[in-house]
Design goal:
It is a single chain. The protein is about 85% helix and about 0% strand. With about 250 residues, the protein is mainly α. α3 crosses α5. The termini are far apart.
């Protein structure tokens, strides 16, 4: 009777493992939304816990069969053979479910990381757009133009590391068929805005540089003219002080 019960327990254990494999490992999942992916991660976590909890039952079966084998070697030997098959299948099931759970957790982490990088770069684009708009209505003063140019250039020096991460993370998920429609849409919108604002910012940078160069040249010319006028004023003043007749002066002084 003991042997019959143990044989029945082994059969039930094998049946449970077959069902678990069908339910957790043989489904063809498609993750088209973050909610579906998150639910799949949670389901695989529960599956891993469920499978690992059966470890106690497997150990009890193993101990009982060993004990039976010492008392009834013939029955115990047959059950030991069946037990080895169950143990091998159980270990394989554990490994496969652990592997799938780890993979899904990595995929979810990849998605969250992608969102974080997109948030960072979107904040930078917002800042860039604000700086570009600020250059559109500047006072006609050298300092104001110079400050606006330096401010814009400081934003444009933003490193490209985050965009590289966005491209690589997005491509990894898309290649795996994970959230491919959503990610493609997000990347397309981000890249379009990035290209538009970058070109606009660089164009405005060139305009400000040219404007600044013109203002500096004009300022220099005004300084030279002011110096020449000052020199002429001092020369004329000395002529008047010395009561020199106008016709005695050089032609340019007259």
């Amino acid at each position: 009777e003991k042997a019959v019960n143990l044989k029945k327990d082994l059969a039930e254990m094998q049946e449970w493992m077959t069902q678990a494999e069908e339910e957790y490992l043989e489904k063809d999942f498609e993750y088209k939304s973050p909610e579906e992916l998150e639910n799949a991660v949670e389901e695989m976590k529960r599956a891993k816990e469920d499978v690992l909890q059966k470890e106690v039952r497997v150990k009890i079966l193993k101990d009982n069969i060993k004990m039976l084998a010492t008392k009834v070697p013939s029955s115990g030997q047959d059950l030991a053979t069946e037990l080895n098959v169950v143990l091998e299948n159980y270990q394989l099931l554990c490994n496969r479910i652990r592997g799938k759970c780890h993979t899904l957790e990595e995929v979810w982490s990849c998605w969250i990381e992608l969102l974080q990088y997109l948030d960072l770069e979107t904040a930078w684009l917002n800042n860039l757009e604000e700086r570009v708009q600020m250059t559109g209505n500047l006072p006609d003063k050298l300092d104001a133009v110079n400050d606006a140019l330096e401010s814009l250039e400081s934003v444009l020096r933003h490193p490209a590391d985050n965009r590289t991460q966005i491209r690589e993370l997005g491509q990894t998920l898309i290649d795996g068929g994970i959230l491919d429609d959503i990610i493609s849409e997000k990347l397309e919108a981000f890249n379009a805005r990035y290209e538009e604002l970058s070109h606009l910012a660089v164009s405005q940078q060139i305009t400000l540089e040219q404007q600044l160069q013109t203002m500096r040249e004009t300022d220099h010319m005004l300084q030279v003219l002011q110096k020449n006028l000052g020199d002429l004023d001092r020369q004329l003043t000395s002529y008047l002080t010395d009561r020199i007749d106008a016709f005695q002066m050089p032609q340019e002084a007259q």
